[in-house]
Design a protein that fits this description.
Radius of gyration of chain C: 23 Å
Shape of chain C: globular
Strand order of the largest sheet of chain C: 1-2
Order of helices and strands of chain C: HHHEEHHHHHHHHHHHHHHHH
Radius of gyration of chain A: 27 Å
Strand content of chain A: under 5%
Number of helices of chain A: 6
Largest interface: B-C, 41 and 38 residues
Largest sheet of chain A: none
Structural class of chain A: mainly alpha
Number of strands of chain A: 0
Helix content of chain C: over 70%
Oligomer: heterotrimer
Chain lengths: 156, 546, 529
Amino acid sequence: MGQYLPLITLLVLTGVFGAVSVVVSRVLNPPRPTEAKSSAYESGITDITEPPERFPVRFYLIAMIFIVFDIEIIFFYPFTMVYSELGWYGVIAIVIFSAAVFESFLYLISNGALDWGPARISRRSVIASDPDRTSTTTVRRVGADGRAFALDGEES
Amino acid sequence: MTVDPTLLLAADGPVTFPILPALILTPLLGALAIFFVPARRDDAFKQIALLTSVVTGVLSIYLLTAFETGEAGFQFVVDQSWISEFGISFHLGVDGISLFLVVLTGVMFPIAIMGAKITHDIKSYYGWLLVLMAGSMGVFLALDLVVFFLFFEVVLVPMYFLIGLWGHGDRIYAATKFFLYTMLGGAFMLVAIVALAILNQRGVGGDLTFDLVQIAQNQAISTEAGRWIFVGFAIAFAVKVPVFPLHTWLPDAHTEAPTAGSVVLAAVMLKLGTYGFVRFGLYLLPEAAHWAAPVMLTLGVIGIIYGAICATMQKDLKRLVAYSSIAHLGFVILGVFSITTQGIEGGILIMVNHGIATGALFLLVGWIYERRHTRQISELSGLQKVAPVFAGVFTLVMLASIGVPGLNGFPGEFLALLGAFQTARWWAVVAVIGVILAALYLLWAYQRTFHGPVTPGNEHFRELRWSEGLVIAPLLALIVFLGVYPAVMLDRMGPSVDALVEHVDEQVDDFERVEITYVGASDIPEPGHDDDSDGPASDEHGEEGE
Amino acid sequence: MFGLPTQDEPIPFDELPLDDPLLFDEPAGVVIPDIEWSAIAPNLILMLGGILLLTVVSLVRGRTPSWFSAVWTISTAVFAGVTLVPLWQRVQDDGAESVMAGAIGLDGFSLFVTGVMCLSVVLGALLLEGYLRREGLAGPEWYVLLLLSASGGVTMASANDLIVMFIGLEILSVAVYVMAAMHSKRVSSQEAGLKYFVLGAFSSAFLLYGIAMVYGATGTTNLVGIQQFLSETVLTQNGLLLAGFAFMLVGFGFKVGAVPFHNWTPDVYQGAPSPVVAYMASGVKVAGFAGMIRVFVVTFGPTYGADWRPMVYALAMLSLVVGSFGAIVQTDVKRMLAYSSISHGGFILVAVAANSEAGTAAALFYLLVYTFMIAGSFGIVTIMGRTGDGLHALSDYRGLSKARPGLALLFTVFLLAQAGVPFTGGFLAKFYVINSSVSQGQYVLALIAMSAAVVAAFLYLRIVVAMYFDGNTYRGESATLAGPKVRIPAAAGVALGIAVVGTLWLGILPGQMTSVAGDAVAQLVAIGP
């Protein structure tokens, strides 16, 4: 059991640190939200449109492709260490593995995942839509309340 | 369900072809033929159905003539292995107990097909009727527990569709209720069957088998297990009979079913339960059946009285007949669970005769409904003046149902009561009231329907057509013939029933066998069936057995 | 994973020199396993078929006819199925064996399950063909995923090692998660995919945790090793092992949709594309049960059966009751069938709880019949969903018997078979299960199972009523409802044909298949024959 003591200590310390952080932040900085403070800009001005936070989805794709190849590399490292011991068996195994990874790469290229330039419409498809979903049901109007408040304020 | 032709030759007896599989396969082939004939050939379906059902009926009557009178065992036995892993085989056979139920099935189906008109979905209607016929035949012929169960359950499907598609009123409710009630009973029975086979295997050793005869002869299971298993069987059969607390599906199903459905339901389907009690209660589990007899007798008597009282109060003619069925089948239960030769013989007689008489009643009520589009007793009046022949036929059938001596209802009820008086006197005493009540509700209904002034709407009540007369004539003939000469049945079932009672006697320790001599059906001396006059237990003649 | 402990006499866990640094520092040397390719041929064919299909369609993008992928998939599955025959013969003649350094078991059980998986791939692909065309979805990907997931399922069923089994499970599951979400035009499909993925990943974690605990308790992940260890060693403290059982049961229970781990089933079945549900309900469930039986019945059954049986017993009972009662209050046919599949799962769990060879055979037979029935049922649901795959309310089936009598009759056959009506495979499957259960003395469970079947029958009758009795002619009155207009794609028709023939064949002439199921015993043998 003694050998686990550091582990348990670490576990306890982690918990304690988390708890202390939460408590201390509450004590030092008691939350007193006001309308202005909780709006997007603390200047009190309500935002008219939602902040543009869109990224081309292609970035995600690149990131995911990167991860796949990254992990492939991770498998290559140990292979190089025991390369001589494994002999042909190891070579064949790693070739099968690489083939599977490159196969998916092939698929990605074929589907235009790495095509730059203007977006190519590869498929005609209607965007996913559900008649029950409208802008009012799904989009949370951030700051709409504040806006109404502000308008009232201006009028009065 | 292919049958190996070499094994078909295994059927013994004078019949040189496998008559029992033929009884099941003929209607099934008819159903297949109907399935493959295009739907627009509306006229062909009834002809195919009629042809195959009549052929089956003729085969069943041929079976009756070829049946070896005076033998107790199973005849025309066919044994074709089906699932060898579990020792399940298509083991078919008839003895004196099932013989008449097979013939009843063979006779009633053609009559039901002829006697009722149908206006829509003609193809599937006749198809389902033939499937139902095959299934009913299978139930009475099966000597393997699983095969029995298969047929017992499979008849639900055609009946469900018959009620649901061609029924009246609240037909879907009635059909669903019918299906679920019976299936629930079947659930208990399946577990009981499997448990019985496995315990039998443990008791005897050897391979697993579901063979009825083997298991019944081995009697290798413990008393307690046997009783539990009996309860499983009893629930299934009690639903099907139906015995008093489980009967509520019957009035609905009977009332909403189309005419042919009601006829078949009353004549054949209700017998599956009572037949089951004889075959799978007394024969398979004699000890447990003897143990449960007081409860079953009580339920039977409750059924008799309850059915009669309910029938008295019905405003719907068809519902009245339905409730009268409950009462009649109560007599069967009473007779069977008296466990005397007379009682069981009486029970089987009632099964057959109730099939004939109630089947005929349902036909007649169906015809009334066709003419007047109502079954309410209050809306019918004075029909006797408008349609005297119809009224005459109705009278005869009704009297048979009441159990008037000379007609076929009488011998069965008499024998059942006679048997019950030996071993279950007080139950029998109460049951006799049911006989009187039967006269009350039927005569009263007859009086309100056929007598009295001709009320508006009934003036043009159509007289019995020739075609209808021809359909019902065989039933009328049987009603009179079996009432006057029931010996034709008693002689054939006697040895089997005797053997059954003897089987119970051997297996049950505290069973006191009661035998009485009676003058009547079996007073024709028969070799091997010499009237019980000097039987071993004849000294108990007239004494209370239990 | 590579080989068993080399000691002749396994050392009891307490005495294992785990703290001996030499044990771990000593260079073990790489043992190169002897790979017998022919033994894993069906699995290889399925996997290579999937990968090759993806390669081919990537290379000639857009130039393959639309039927190409379906035909490829079906031929691959059929080919894999054909290779089973010599392997089956080999197993029956020479007995079961372990291949791939003890990681894969070649026995009747794994071959039977492989066959059922191939069957469900064929049926799924046939249904997909018309579906993708109708919905206007492009998609060799669907077929690729189908084949890959089947390969995962086969791996799972034949795994002789918990790690291999887990890998198989993941290959199977990940592919199906994606397939559930692949209908890009339906939000509910994506919702289903996400739900399935999140909950499935959660359950996989449970399984992995359980595997770790079992490894901790026994010192190996190899099923043969575990079995040997447990039969030769009496554990003084088995808390870790029992906790491992519980966690693994959660993981498997999730995959097979056993109550109380069933909550994803109705939502996912409702939302996922119908042909995928057909595959999910048959193939995935088959693989899940195969894994469960392999681990619990075969490995832990002889020694620790008394410990896990009550748990499976409870799962079975709950699944039966909740599945059948939950089904009857639904109004969406897909949800109904989802609940009824939970109830079916309960039935198979009854066979698993029997913890016997007969129980295993019963479960296999049930799974085979179930594949036919459920693929047929969801095949009809696929057709009836019509464009958009959204018309699944009970009322959408009204009057089907008028518009499409053949389709209505087929659906009736499938539903009645599911209810267990005689002369259909469904009855014999139930009979087989009841038989195995009663022979282990589980009378109460058998009764509950049969009663639940009756309750479930009510649900099937509701669908039949909708098809036949609603809007039908009544006493000569003309029908008020014309019934739904549906088009049956040829491939889907073939799938329904196969399913109905299978359902009836197993009900009327089951002798052959019951004996095959009886021969499909699961065995754990050490490496090599």
